[in-house]
TrEMBL record:
The keyword Lipid metabolism does not apply. Zn(2+) binds at residues 14, 27, 180, 184. One of its GO terms (molecular function) is metal ion binding. Pfam families: Adenine_glyco. The keyword Zinc applies. InterPro entries: Adenine_glyco, DNA-3mA_glycosylase, DNA_glycosylase, Tag. Keywords: Metal-binding, Zinc. GO terms for biological process: base-excision repair. It comes from Comamonas terrigena. This is DNA-3-methyladenine glycosylase I. NCBIfam families: tag.
Length: 201
């Protein structure tokens, strides 16, 4: 079974990104490319939490609204959100209006501040969980030993909506693993970006 499909431009891409031009752009320019900036890491983990039970394209279509509602995912600001902000967000038809997920992002922003104080940065903490063996992209699991370990540690530190499947999706999105399919036009570019990466410490 092929894990790629030919796109309108004739290039082979992972089959899952064919739903819209926005999805193709995300696949080609974001998914799998290494991220080391703390705000972007917090955004990616937060959006993966919102995605639980929904399609990623739904979240991608609403991403700019999420950014507007959550102060561009600046966790220093989000950590100060209160009850009025929760109610404001629950009235925002441009995002996923799920009280538990909204409150989890605010709660996790507070945990993110604690992590930066303890570890120096979110990036220094998260990148410790990069698998030693690179993914071939041939079989894409829902979770791995590394995502289980990271999920367990995040929960121990009080984070919410960070189950091992959500965490593995985050690891894919932030470029800790390269799960682009063999033959995908973007796989080699992601591999090169990962090789150039200087892991945060």
């Amino acid at each position: 079974m092929s894990h790629t499909l030919s796109s309108a431009d004739g290039q082979e891409r992972c089959f899952w990104c064919q739903g819209s031009p926005l999805y193709v752009h995300y696949h080609d320019h974001e998914w799998g490319f290494p991220v080391t900036e703390d705000r972007r890491l917090f955004e990616k983990l937060s959006l993966e939490g919102f995605q639980a039970g929904l399609s990623w394209l739904t979240i991608l279509n609403k991403r700019e609204n999420f950014r507007a509602g959550f102060a561009n995912f600046d966790f220093h600001q989000v950590a100060r959100f209160g009850a009025a902000d929760v109610e404001r967000l629950l009235q925002d038809a441009g995002i996923v209006r799920h009280r538990g997920k909204i409150e989890a992002v605010i709660h996790n922003a507070q945990r993110a501040l604690e992590m930066v104080a303890q570890e120096g940065s979110l990036a220094a903490f998260f990148w410790r969980y990069q698998p030693a063996t690179p993914s071939t992209g041939e079989v894409v699991p829902a979770q791995t030993a590394e995502s289980l370990a990271l999920s367990k540690e995040l929960k121990k530190r009080g984070w919410k909506f960070v189950g091992p499947t959500t965490v593995y999706a985050f690891m894919q999105a932030m470029g800790m693993v390269n799960d682009h399919a063999p033959g995908c036009v973007t796989r080699a570019a992601v591999a090169q970006a990962q090789q150039r990466l200087q892991r945060p410490v």
